[in-house]
Design a protein that fits this description.
The complex is a heterodimer of chains A (about 230) and B (about 180).
Chain A lengths: L11 E10 L2 E11 L4 E5 L6 H8 L7 E6 L2 E2 L5 H10 L1 E4 L11 H11 L4 H14 L15 H13 L5 E5 L7 H18 L2 E5 L3 H4 L4 E6 L2 E4 L5
Parallel strand pairs in A: 3-8, 3-9, 6-7, 7-8
Antiparallel strand pairs in A: 1-2, 1-4, 4-5, 9-10
Helix pairs in contact in A: 3-4, 3-5, 4-5, 5-6
Chain B lengths: L5 H9 L4 E2 H11 L8 H13 L3 E7 L6 E6 L1 H12 L11 H11 L4 H24 L5 H37 L1
Helix pairs in contact in B: 1-3, 2-3, 5-6, 6-7
Classes of the chains: A alpha/beta (about 230), B mainly alpha (about 180).
Protein name (chain A): ABC transporter ATP-binding protein
Keywords (chain A): ATP-binding, Nucleotide-binding, Transport
GO molecular function (chain A): ATP binding
Chain lengths: ~230, ~180
């Protein structure tokens, strides 16, 4: 068993990733593994390369060198079309804020990925309503993001990330803009739902109390991953 | 440093109505799940002192079919003392005698390896924080458990912040020494 993975057969793995932004190397040989259904926290100081690592793993940017493997496929070599299909069907993404479409209601925001995948409007709305219910924001279904609290908007964003039943959710500082109680609600909703549905989560955070919701933690230091022990 | 006051906690538990020693011990351990369980001897000694100081009095003795038990209740003076203590500001403790702090300082003084120690300590802290988080977010958790887990989590988090800053300072110091 690898010292950086929770399973001998990872769902998602990166080897020796290097990625530079201009002359700054954000990743300098980072390797990481995510097992199916595992909730993994990636922690580290600002500028340690956490978000760049997430972008490479989610197929949003390609590394300069190194390999990203998802379910046996070399993600870093896939054509853009196949990548965007994967991002739509197998991956869910949640950022710190701002990802909901401000003109749409909570229900329409959550239904959107299903509509894009060809689900009927009626079915998409029914499924979206169920997901809002699971995240305790059914009462906000007809509100637009601007009329919701930060914690409510973030739970709607989680519902949208999970509505397509993805294999992996990438969450980049999902509670970064929330107070501690709202943060607790968001993290409890995310981790309970992910564990129920067997969805793996890659959780980027600088907050140890948020990282404590994960099964395991790895720390990024200067663009390299340091394993901090596998959870018992 | 002011120790956690068993007498005030017992007075607080008596505020809900008369109670006997066994019941007080059981309720204490339920309400303060992260604290060390109270010993029966400590409960009875504390109750006797409360009576001696006029803060509690014997309500009556009954057996209820089992062993004979003495029930106690708080007096008006007891209620006033409880209110005074509950509103009294606790001194913000500096915690400078913490074991983690001592180990790092000793390690620096003796030319040891504080970075390795800090990494291992972080792993242990995170493992405990995961346990507490699971406890806190388990369905049906009662308020006392949640509050107590929150308290422990925030203190462990404070340790972690200090350890992270210290690890960064040590790296900077080492770099300066190497460059010099």
């Amino acid at each position: 068993m690898s010292n950086q993975g929770g399973s001998p057969v990872p769902l998602l793995a990166a080897r020796d990733l290097v990625k530079a932004h201009g002359r700054t190397e954000a990743l300098r040989g980072a390797s990481i593994e995510l097992a199916p259904g595992e909730i993994l926290a990636v922690t580290g100081a600002s500028g340690s390369g956490k978000s760049t690592l997430l972008h490479c793993l989610a197929g949003i940017v390609r590394p300069d060198t190194g390999a990203v493997t998802y379910a046996g496929e070399r993600l870093d070599r896939l054509p853009e079309r196949r990548l965007s299909e994967l991002r739509r069907t197998e991956f869910g993404v949640v950022f710190q804020f701002g990802q909901l479409i401000p003109e749409l209601t909570a229900l329409d925001n959550v239904a959107l990925p299903l509509l894009l995948a060809g689900t009927s409007r009626q079915q998409a709305h029914a499924t979206a309503g169920e997901w809002l219910e699971r995240f305790g924001v059914r009462g906000q279904a007809e509100l637009r993001p601007g009329a919701m609290s930060g914690g409510q908007a973030q739970r709607v964003a989680l519902a949208r990330a999970l509505v397509t039943a993805p294999k992996v959710v990438f969450a980049d500082e999902p509670t970064g803009a929330l107070d501690s109680l709202a943060s607790e609600q968001v993290m409890t909703a995310l981790t309970h739902t992910a564990r129920e549905s067997g969805t793996a989560v890659l959780l980027i955070t600088h907050d140890a109390q948020v990282a404590a919701y994960a099964d395991r933690e790895v720390q990024l230091t200067d663009g390299m991953v340091e394993a901090l022990g596998v959870a018992a | 440093m002011i120790a956690m006051s068993t007498r005030h906690i017992l007075l607080g538990l008596l505020a809900g109505g008369p109670s006997h020693g066994y019941d007080l011990k059981r309720r204490h351990d339920e309400r303060f799940p992260q604290a060390r369980p109270l010993a029966y001897g400590q409960v009875y000694t504390t109750l006797q002192r409360l009576v001696r100081d006029g803060l509690a009095e014997v309500e009556g003795t009954g057996s209820d079919g089992g062993p004979e038990r003495t029930a106690y209740r708080a007096t008006d003076e007891g209620a006033a003392e409880l209110a005074r203590w509950a509103g009294e500001i606790a001194p913000p403790a500096p915690f400078v005698t913490n074991e983690i702090f001592a180990k790092v300082v000793v390690s620096i003084l003796s030319g040891g390896d504080p970075e390795t120690y800090l990494r291992a300590q972080r792993t242990a802290h995170m493992a405990r924080m995961r346990e507490l988080t699971a406890l806190k977010t388990a369905p049906g958790g009662d308020l006392a458990t949640v509050l107590s887990a929150d308290y422990a989590l925030n203190h462990l988090d404070a340790d972690l912040r200090w350890m992270t800053t210290t690890a960064a300072r040590l790296t900077t110091l080492t770099a300066e020494v190497d460059a010099g």
